[in-house]
Amino acid sequence: MNAAGLWFLAVGGAAALTHLGVFALTQHLMWPELANALGFCVAFFVSFAGHRRFSFQDAGTSLATSLRRFAVTALAGFACNEAVFMLLLRGLQLPALLALFVALVFAAGQTFVLSRFWAFRR
């Protein structure tokens, strides 16, 4: 695995832990789907800053272009995440943290491909 791939995993892991942490702290205050969305919003900034600085530091796009593209990429990943999360939580009745963890892993592949080849295109 190359350095960009390792950085992607490290930054993605940090963003996922942020997402899970916000979710764990807020799930008792609101519907799980809303706590998931809040976790996504906070983790978005961790993810963008880390990927721009480390994973895709040789990006050939401006900061503003990368931010716009990454927002679209992240929202597509979140749509996937939320759909899987709801299916596992409501449909299969998995515990909320387990359902969110699986949903985050599921959406990570999609996010990498869109980030690498579009949002932070080299």
Mean pLDDT: 89
The helix/strand series, from N terminus to C terminus, equals HHHH
Distance between the termini: 18 Å
Q: Tell me the number of strands.
A: 0
Report on the architecture of this protein:
The chain has helices at 3-26, 32-55, 63-91, 96-119. By secondary structure, it is mainly α. The chain has one domain. Helix 1 runs antiparallel to helix 4 (96-119). The chain is elongated.
In short:
By secondary structure, this protein is mainly α. The protein is built from 4 helices and no strands.
Key traits:
122 residues; mainly alpha; single chain; 83% helix
Show the helix and strand layout.
Elements lengths: L2 H24 L5 H24 L7 H29 L4 H24 L3
Helix pairs in contact: 1-2, 1-4, 2-3, 3-4
